[in-house]
Amino acid sequence: MGIFGGTFDPIHLGHLRAAEETRESFGLDAVLFVPSANPPHRDPHGVSAAEHRLEMVRRALHGNPAFRPSDLECRREGTSYSVETLRLLRMQQGPHAEFYFLLGQDAFAEIRTWRLYEELFQLSHWVVLERRGSRAWGRRAIPGPVRGLFRYDRSRAGYAHPSGHLVYFRRFRCLDISGTRIRDLVRRGRSIRYLVPSEVEEYIWRNGLYCGTKGEVR
């Protein structure tokens, strides 16, 4: 199972394409999208309400049985830590479940600042998606304090941790889209068509997200 965590503010076609290529590449039966209710690395005043972000994820995934929305972090009080999410999923799915945690290269570059980040590599495989313009790639991107634990596994084209989990670095044909760019376009009253699913576009304008006022679908 793939696990795609993030703020999804909003979820966009780049997220969906990255998840689809990961699912296909690794033969995953499903990808779970987990909006972070209270992301520890974001200003809480600069993030849309969790219920809006979860609803946009639900709308974006509708019609794809392999993509599943999760309210796990939205139901949990306090800061949303990935290590707690993975622990809970491990308890629910059992010790033999195979997890692949998807994240962008920019987020992985900051993983050393995540809560109990050393434990994360014991709970899941990691699929790091290339972000255009990033310099750190491959072994250089693995945090220094734990880098020595990893050995390159040529047969699986990933860096193996003593737990048996791997860190994979993948260059997929993801669209160069960012939530920051989308929010800026909405604030300026510009079109976001073909950047987000139409259901998400309609929801954003109808609820006045990112601009403070309700608007018509553009």
- CATH-derived topology: Rossmann fold
Mean pLDDT: 90
CATH fourth-tier homologous superfamily: HUPs
Strand order across the biggest sheet?
3-2-1-4-5-8-7-6
Strand content: 15-25%
Q: CATH first level: which class?
A: Alpha Beta
Sheet with the most strands? 8 strands, mixed
Oligomer: single chain
Helix fraction bin: 25-40%
Shape, principal axes of CA atoms: globular
* Protein structure class: alpha/beta
* Intertermini distance: 36 Å
Poorly predicted ranges: 213-218
Gist?
The chain is of the alpha/beta class and 218 residues long. It has one domain: HUPs (Rossmann fold), CATH 3.40.50. 34% of the residues lie in helices and 16% in strands.
Tell me about this structure.
This protein has 218 residues and is an alpha/beta fold. It has a single domain, classed as HUPs (Rossmann fold, 3-Layer(aba) Sandwich). The chain contains nine helices and eight strands. It has helices at 13-26, 50-61, 72-75, 82-93, 105-108, 117-123, 144-147, 179-187, 198-206; strands at residues 2-6, 31-35, 67-69, 100-104, 125-129, 151-153, 158-160, 166-170. The chain has an eight-stranded mixed β-sheet with strand order 3-2-1-4-5-8-7-6, with helices on both faces. Helix 2 (50-61) runs antiparallel to helix 9 (198-206) and helix 4 (82-93) runs parallel beside helix 6 (117-123). Mean pLDDT is 90; it is low at 213-218.
